[in-house]
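User: I'm new to structure prediction. If I give you an amino acid sequence, what do you actually give back? Let's try with this one:
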Amino acid sequence: MQPAATETLRLHKALYMAQGIRDAIGVFDGFARFELRREGDHYVVEVRNVDPEVDGDLAGEFCNFALVHTLERKRRTPGAKSEAA
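Assistant: Good question. You get back a string of structure tokens that encode the predicted 3D arrangement of the chain. For your 85 residues, that looks like this:
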């Protein structure tokens, strides 16, 4: 089955920091094109042009990576909150 041309990820600001998402985009940039924007209580990430050689759930791995980076940033910065995209 061919992956969708564009996948939209909605990441809630209560769980994710914009910089954690940006960190993930930096790491995953070689596998797809990412566009980040803010919509209300969510960060929205559009994932396009996924490399056909990618095997597995790129979106799921990306979200996990963004969450880990968010948690690491929150630990380093006590009282850190989500910030604007």
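You can read the tokens as a compact description of the fold. Here is one thing that stands out. Helices lie at 18-28, 58-76.
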